[in-house]
Amino acid sequence: MRVVLTGITGFVGQNLMPMLKANCPNDEFLTMNLNVDEAMEKYPSADYVNFRHVGINDFKAVEAFNPEITMHLATVTSARNDTDIIAPMIKANIEFGVLLLDALSRCDAMKLFVNTGSFAEFRYGNGKYDAAYLYTASKTAFRSFVDYYSNLCGYKYITAIPYSVYGGKMTVKRLMDYIKESIDAAEPVDMTTGEQVLDFIHVNDIAGFFTHILLHRERFYVLENGTDFHLGTGRGTSIRELVSKIEIKYGKKCNINWGGRPYRERDTMYAVAPIAANMPLVGWRAEISLTEGC
Q: How far apart are CA 137 and CA 115, in angstroms?
């Protein structure tokens, strides 16, 4: 089977790649990269023998490769909503994706496009689109293009929606890192009042879902088109509860100034994954508990 991958040097991607190498040795992979040299350094051909890396604009290589499945993880993620972020965000989250879909429209082997969304597309957690941030608005906008090309070309698509991801090889600091850094810190770390209730899922579980797709692809080929998979544990934990868990885990107190920073405008205050359909539909669930993951 031939698989196109984007975003392999990102947070989820670099945790996914070793899983694919270990679990899918007989599949062929073509990866699209903003920096091919970085991809080759991280995933050398001597170790990743069934992977080939090309540039982000090499759509002719995609057409020649003629994939059966495409997994689209590449994105620009940002909490910013200022004028300067608009152009790079639209270029990465919409323009590149549409150009990829256009190339895939000439690939007659295509059966499944795996899109990646965000839980903050649903600000109130009620299944209705209401983007919390400019970034998530771009993710929702891209869905329309995926739906158009899917209907035009006849392949299926699904959207994987990760919740609050932590662990593994980080690319930027995340909430868990700031909390851990506050242990024994001389100065308190400013945080909000910590009332947000979030669904924390380990990055290995997210990577495991994408691997699960390839290992059980026939189950995904027969799904209703456009099915969303909310990737979480189904359990909500407030930021304050998370801090308590980390304090218990390390046997130390966190030095946090609660209320020292404001909530972001339109911040998501409750985001717990509705996971009930995941097992019946495709036989997947998160395996790593928050206590274990910490």
A: 15
Q: What is the DSSP string of 109-164?
A: T--EEEEE--GGGBTTSSSS-B-SSHHHHHHHHHHHHHHHHHHHH--EEEEEEE-E
Homologous superfamily of 2-164+200-234+274-286 in CATH?
Answer: NAD(P)-binding Rossmann-like Domain (3.40.50.720)
pTM of the model: 0.95
> Do residues 33 and 9 touch, judged by C-beta distance below 8 A?
yes
Beta pairing partners, 32: 6, 54
Q: How far apart are CA 84 and CA 80, in angstroms?
A: 9
pLDDT per residue as tens digits for the range 162-214:
999 999 877 778 898 899 899 989 999 999 999 999 999 999 999 999 999 99
Q: DSSP letters of 31-58? A: EEES-HHHHHHHS-TTT-TTEEEEETT-
Question: CA 51, CA 45: separation in Å to the nearest integer?
Answer: 7
Q: What residue segments make up the domains of the chain, in order of their start?
A: 2-164+200-234+274-286
Q: Which residues contact 195 (CB under 8 A, 6 or more apart)?
A: 238, 239, 240, 269
Say if CB 53 and CB 241 are below 8 A apart: no
Reported as a single tens digit per residue, the pLDDT across 25-79 is 999 999 999 999 999 999 999 999 999 999 999 999 999 999 999 999 999 988 7
How far is the CA of 222 from the CAs of 101, 207, 208, in angstroms? 21, 22, 20
- For 263, half-sphere exposure in the C-beta direction (CA atoms, 13 angstrom radius) is 12
Contact 137, 75 (CB under 8 A): no
